[in-house]
Amino acid sequence: MVTIKDIAKEAGVAVSTVSRVLNNHPDVSEKTKLKVLDIIEKRKFVPNSNAKHLKQQNTNTIGIFVKGTFNFLFHSILEKIQPLIEDSGYITIVNYLDEDENEVQQARIFCNEKKPQGIMFLGGNLKNFQDHFSKIDIPSILVTNSASQLNFSNLSSVTTNDKKAVEFAIEYLIEKGHTNIGIIGGNADSSNISEVRLKSIIKTLYKHKINFDISSHFEPARYSFESSYKACQRLINKKLGITAIFAMSDVMAIGAMRAMTDSKISIPSDISVIGYDGIELVNYYNPKLTTILQLQDQIALNAVKIITSQIEKNLDPIHKVLPFKLMEGESVIRI
């Protein structure tokens, strides 16, 4: 039987380093982590604590990786997914990750230890999949992000039509008379969803012959209340005369609205705000947020149907793109 010492020796690292990789400690370089993971994969190593119980493990397990501890949309979708999976005869094991963590690397470790039947990713960075997903050989599905361009035979996806949804949101603001629009969103270099949405924003504004200076009118933020609050403060302090803000998530929109309220800026009289996701919280914020609604029930139902079918019937990957709706609240006015 392969031991942790064997892995350490082959990798040329200490046993403690292998242990830190297995436990996802942040103090291991990316290069070392990948080297150790490759050897673990090649040698089919299972930590002793898990090997002893491997035969007792229920093989009807689906691992779920939730990207972002403040992602209310994912939490809501997860609540709908879990009972659907359990009704299909499977057990779920949920793993929560920071939005900057490498979900594919963590899934590789999970697969090695738990031997699941399938993997579901709620959110993900496509570069992580391009670089590391080939090491995962079980049915998997990426939720709220499209994997259609990755061409993996075991990776499906379910997503909202983000390009069209963002275009609709921007044109909604334009139709209301807003042409000086500020944007709060994720880092396009590390978040594919943020990149897709930002490109759609720029394309839509260009289509309507509206100039957009990304260096002044876009403020990056993490998908959290605090980060978007600070991003909105930076936007406000530039004194650009913006009349509307599009936030790439409802959490970002709510953080921005709090910053505006604290700065004595009236919503929507001074600045209109539109969000994205349609989480339940927006119905109870004052003013009620206007937002793009992702159809969470459909996302959950399609995701579970696809992953269970892939597991049981070994089907070709399916890439489902779902529609969206506008939820009109009280945070946007015509000017």
UniProtKB/TrEMBL annotation:
PROSITE patterns xrefs: HTH_LACI_2 (PS50932)
Native species: Acetoanaerobium noterae
Span of domain HTH lacI-type: 2-56
Protein name: Transcriptional regulator, LacI family
Listed InterPro entries: HTH_LacI (IPR000843), LacI/GalR-like_sensor (IPR046335), Lambda_DNA-bd_dom_sf (IPR010982), Peripla_BP_I (IPR028082)
Pfam families: LacI, Peripla_BP_3
ATP-binding keyword on record: no
GO molecular function terms attached to this record: DNA-binding transcription factor activity; transcription cis-regulatory region binding
SMART domains given in the database record: HTH_LACI
Superkingdom, taxonomy of origin: Bacteria
CDD domains from the UniProt entry: HTH_LacI, PBP1_LacI_sugar_binding-like
Keywords: DNA-binding, Transcription, Transcription regulation
